[in-house]
Every structure is written in structure tokens, then in C-alpha cells.
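Encode chain A's predicted structure.
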Amino acid sequence: MFEKLQKEVVTLLKSEGGKDSKLLAICKLLKSSVPYYDWVGFYFKNGDKRELKLGPYAGAPTDHTIIPFGKGICGQVAESNKNFVVPDVQAQDNYIACSITVKSEIVVPLFKDGENIGQIDIDSNTPDPFTSEDERFLEFVNREVAKIL
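Encoded structure for chain A:
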């Protein structure tokens, strides 16, 4: 599944259109193609501020359009520069609940020229679905996305 999706991601990123439309297309592709990806979005560093700003996403609307560094899973990844896989969001002290249906989350940082400029964030309504394959795939997605930023 991920091998086929890698090709589709590359094709989308080479298509016509602006950066945001391409990122939105990726979010929609991942959400519709991976059964346990229930919300897919990008957060980006908000200028010089120590906060993340919501970019394109696919899924239910969220109130979390700005996330301070260190807050929640996304804010922790902004500081750690490392992938964060959360098998059970209820077990996390520093978790920002987006929806009561979310059971797990994966966040993978997005680097451009060695700097963490954002991340891809995926919520799942399935408990503990994410594997190392998801991590490798999302790292690939972010490497490809960085090429258009």
C-alpha cells in the first residue's frame, strides 16, 4: 500500500498548482487511502514565534490552529525534532484532544535544509495502528514535500 502511495505523492507534488493545493491533495490522498488515517494535516512553524500554525488538512475541523512549542504531541515534536508515535492518546499527560473519537496519533517532523519547519500530523480513531512502516512512509512524504517548500 505505501509503495503505491509513494508514487502517487510524487505525482501530486509534480502536478500543477500552488503549494497549499498540493499539500491539501496529499492530505486527502492519505486520509482516503489508509483506512486508519482519520485526520491528516500539516503544521508549520509560525514565522519566528515558538508556535505551530495549522496548514492544509483533511478531516474534521479543528480548533487547534495554533499550537505552542512543547504543548501536545505536535508541540513536543517541534522541540524534540523526533517522530512521536502515540498508541493511546489517553495515556499521554501532555495531549491536546481534538476529538473524543481519536485513539492514537503519529507526528513526523518536516525538515528543510536541516531545520524543523513543520510536521505531518495524523490522528486515528483506531487504537495503536501505527507501525514503523507508517513512520518510514511519512518521513518519505515529508522529504518529498520539503522539495516544494
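The two ends are 26 Å apart (CA to CA).
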